[in-house]
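User: Thanks for the earlier help. One more: Adenine DNA glycosylase. Can you show the sequence and predicted structure together?

Assistant: Of course, both are below.
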Amino acid sequence: MSREKTEAAAAFFAAELLNWYDANKRDLPWRRDRDPYRIWVSEVMLQQTRVDTVIPYYERFMERFPTVRHLAEAPEEEVLKCWEGLGYYSRARNLQAGARQVVELYGGVVPDDKAAISSLKGIGPYTAGAILSIAYNKPEPAVDGNVMRVMSRYFLLEDDIAKPSARTKIERLAASIIPEGRAGDFNQAVMELGALVCTPKSPGCLLCPVLAQCAGRAAGRERELPAKSKAKPPRPELRLAALVEGRGEHAGKVLVRRRPDSGLLARMWELPHVLAPDEAARSRGRAAGAAAFAADARVLASATILADAKAAGVPEAPAVADADDSAASAGAVAAGTSMAGTAGDGRFDALSRGLAEEAGLLVRPVRLWSEEEHVFSHIRWKVDVYLAEFGFFLAGGREAAAGAAGGMAAEPGASYGGPSDADDLPEGWLWIGPEDMASLAFPNVFLRILNDYFARQA
Ligand code: SF4
């Protein structure tokens, strides 16, 4: 396209789009004022998440944290709880970290300066552009996936939008056509067109306000564009989780733990789980009857842990599964699930052994409860959940377990110092009942499992 043609097409695009937006924009809760904090929260929630899903979360969040100061001062647990179900929890943590920066550095006022706002935790070029243009009407582009799609089609841009260079090019183009005094409306208008008309799979060209000058449509390429190289599919992982049921004074409760302070799903609560060893992962879905993994002398068998712990004077702990016990109990696989998860395929043992080694937790898996899935951007978890009986925690927790894993066969029980009291859980572990679901934040997959479990117990 010649430069003159591009300029004419750009002017047409901006003018027609604004007219269309004025008449057709949706009444969304974050559009009711220009408070930069409210816009910030909405933009962060809308990343990777549909508008319909976001609305109730946004309303609850704004009710609970109506100002940047409220958010900055809230306990993180409450923020995560309010975010629970939206996924991508690092967004919530970064949002709160950014709010704390705004309070500490800018007296609680979201800055209207590009360098200052871009230095806040979790604010990238898109969010900075959205806040600056919508709240402060600054002529900054806000280029997200919708905008890249619309502009690639309208201007017939063939650049691979997965590459940063394409984003930079589109940002420059968008910045050059923002109409004076209407930066916020223009940016929202392009996003709105992408959400409502120029949709990914079936663009509604016949209803489009910029159809007359759309180069992509004129070339019959609207469904091919934007060009986007395929991202690597998420890496599959089989996780084995224990739904450890309490007894005695903990009857009706389930054992949960808090995740580490950093990394994936940091500080959220979950059922204890381990990565399945390759041989157990490969066997998922196969019928029972594979050779007994538990008998493999090369690994630290949990039965051995128990025997050694008993030798060290541990009273009253229920036995960790041995192959025969597990095979017998595996007959009672949860309704609607497959035969996966019998002792013979090694997963009972892999779970009890893994928890003992990683967390110093001894449990006895009893039967498969459910099979779940949880997809992150880079990992796809398949989660096999096993009902399990609580044994005990090794005193000294993980360190003792690691030591035990290395040398217990030679020195039975010497590395333990005996079990912990069942009431004296290590830090970061809790027995919870249904009433605790209102205060602890769980990733979706564990939220589903626990809600289902407590509902069935009621
Ligand atoms: S005419 Fe079609 S392809 Fe072009 S911007 Fe409109 S909806 Fe998208």
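User: Great, one quick takeaway?

Assistant: Confidence is low (pLDDT under 50) at residues 285-341, 404-422.
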